[in-house]
Amino acid sequence: MKTAIVWFKTDLRLLDNEALVKAIAQSDQVVPVYCFDEAQFETTTYGFNKTGNYRAQFLLESVQDLDANLRKLGSGLVVLKGKPEEEIAKIVLQYRAQKVFAKREVAYEEKQTEKKVQDALFKLRCELETFSTSTLYHAEDLPFSIKDIPDVFTSFRKKTEFDATIRPIFEVPTAITSPEIAPMEIPSWKDLDLKKPKKESRAAIQFKGGETAALNRLHYYFFETKQLSVYKETRNGMVGADYSSKFSAWLAMGCISPRAIYDQIKKYEKENGANDSTYWLVFELLWRDFFRFMFKKYQTKFFLYTGIQPEKPISKKASESALSQWINGKTDSDFINANMLELKKTGFMSNRGRQNVASYFCNELQMDWRMGAAYFESQLIDYDVCSNWGNWAYLAGVGNDPRKHRYFNIEKQAKDYDKDGEFRKLWLLEN
């Protein structure tokens, strides 16, 4: 009997999951597995938890939802904790699996883990097959090789939109044949050495992990409220659930794929008409693709102080007090403080807020941008390695920004985007 393992990572979904579909097609039975990688719960060199409380909660909810959805199809999720190269190998031996199917990684640490798993499986005569499941456009369909991808987004976008097509989605399997899988046991907060975060009534949205919540949010934002039709006008908002799609957390954990969102945008446009706003959400998904392809192109460079730029920028000072003031919303700027308090208390911040606090960190505080990126990594529910480090490098002037030094006038930004001070009142009055 041919048995395959499906190793779920940041692709915690059934809809549009090529690894799962191919595993079912090529095997007699499938064992879905998720491994809580101990390396993801360590303290980084910058002194922050790699995975903070908010992202951990979203992950736990996403894993539980995946298990529930798998069980409806006759399967279930085997949950492991430890080093993936050891734990996946044990499961392969236990089920005598011939092949492991998984999502293909692009960032350095994730690729290192993938390689360790592949090496461990090779010793067991078990193959690891990976699939690109995280982007709107498939890397093989781009009009250029990875090494030749333009470093400027506009050039990349124009040529890609003109010359490449988006592949259709993989539908949800109708059934999955699996050996009997015991009820799932997920790690406790104590196991992860974290604390369950308190609910914050001021949060822009109460995120809930999992594919079920992702599809509900998409249906609400597109078809119930038709907010998609005004997305371009409202996306720079700062208060409330509906000024933007808020898909980022589910995209980051892979509870929904960019192609599944695109598929529904096309359906929405047929029913309600296409406009600048419906296009703009595709445009944002393309930005997300761009950073993933940049990581494929430049690999470790996005984690260097100099980023992908050849010349070394002026050395930045490290100040524990300035870092603490920034994190805790105690800087000289009430606009920065309000945004940082929202992040600290909810694990989320608007796109407009992120650009401003990053600019402030790099330009006003003159700090090493990687420290700010590492804090975001720990704190953000929607942390995605490529988008986070790519955007921080961009704002620090060492990434893909053709202007090289993007400086935000914080006071002007506050006047433009929080004209009546509604956002600042919300976050500063109780503090």
UniProtKB/TrEMBL annotation:
The UniProt keyword set, sorted, is: Chromophore, FAD, Flavoprotein
Q: Would I find Metal-binding among this entry's keywords?
A: no
The protein's required cofactor(s) are namely: (6R)-5,10-methylene-5,6,7,8-tetrahydrofolate; FAD
Q: Which InterPro entries match?
A: Cry_DASH (IPR014133), Crypto/Photolyase_FAD-like_sf (IPR036134), Crypto/Photolyase_N_sf (IPR036155), Cryptochr/Photolyase_FAD-bd (IPR005101), Cryptochrome/DNA_photolyase_1 (IPR002081), DNA_photolyase_N (IPR006050), Rossmann-like_a/b/a_fold (IPR014729)
**Record Pfam families:** DNA_photolyase, FAD_binding_7
- Give GO MF terms, alphabetically: deoxyribodipyrimidine photo-lyase activity; DNA binding; FAD binding
Photolyase/cryptochrome alpha/beta domain location, by residue?
2-136
Co-factor: note: Binds 1 5,10-methenyltetrahydrofolate (MTHF) per subunit.
Q: Where does this protein hold FAD?
A: 231, 244-248, 284-291, 382-384
Q: Name one GO biological process term.
A: photoreactive repair
Family named by the database record = Belongs to the DNA photolyase class-1 family.
The UniProt function text for this chain reads: May have a photoreceptor function.
The name of this protein is Cryptochrome DASH
Q: What is the lineage of its organism?
A: Bacteria, Pseudomonadati, Bacteroidota, Flavobacteriia, Flavobacteriales
